[in-house]
Every structure is written in structure tokens, then in C-alpha cells.
Amino acid sequence: MTDMTREDVTAMILTAKRQAGLTWEGIAEAIGMSPVWTHSAAMGMNAMPSDKAEALTAHLALPQEAALVLQESPTKVWTQAVPTDPCIYRLYEIVGVYGPTIKALIHEKFGDGIMSAIDFDMQISRVENPKGDRVKIEMSGKYLSYNAW
Q: What is the set of active-site residues?
């Protein structure tokens, strides 16, 4: 068993990234994953397969013990009801305003069910616009129908 915690490893990753002047896109490319997944796993929200954990720790020159921690199944705990960070708050606002619409349209197109956040991928890109560049977030999750039992 290791004395290193997931929080310790996250702090080491952020320090190494900052000191090396790296981007999430560059780190993700180095380990062969998407930037969204790489960041989420580095922040402790996903377990890394051993080869990706090894690649990340090697790329960032982290201790070998960090690779073991990155492979552990995470406990996903959100401590804030509504975050105060403006970027994250706006995402909550989008879900608050458009959540019922998204749900209704999913039900119309697929039936009674949900979009998986486990069998899921996401892309974030910049779209140039004369009125000001736009953030484009594309999410794709497997449709999961509710079972009647």
C-alpha cells in the first residue's frame, strides 16, 4: 500500500505541468489520450490504465509510486452545491436552464433513458467568430434506456 494520496499526485502533476510549461493537449498527445480524459484522470476523476499511468508519470518525471495511485478507482465526491468559479458556474447555469430541454429532446429521439457519463467522450474547441471567439463543447454519451421490471 502507498502513503501517497490521489491529492498528492494531482498536486505533483499540476506542479510538473506548470514548471515544464506544458499544455493538457501536449500531455494528452504524449500518453495517447484525449485532453479531456487526461485532465479528468489527472484530477482524480478517472482511473488510468497502467500503460497510460506509466506514460504520464514518465512524461512528467513523477515518482513510480504516482503511477500506482493513478490506477486506483476514484471516489467521485463533489463538495460544492454550486461552484463559485465563473467558468464552472456557467456550466451549471447551462444545465439549470437547458437541462429539462436536453432531457425532453433525448426522450423524443431515443425514448425513456439517459446519456451515459461513463461511456462518454467530449471535445472542447475554439471557433473563430467576428463577434468574439466561441467555445464549442461537444459531448457524446452512450444512450442507456431505463428498464421496466
A: 90, 93, 116
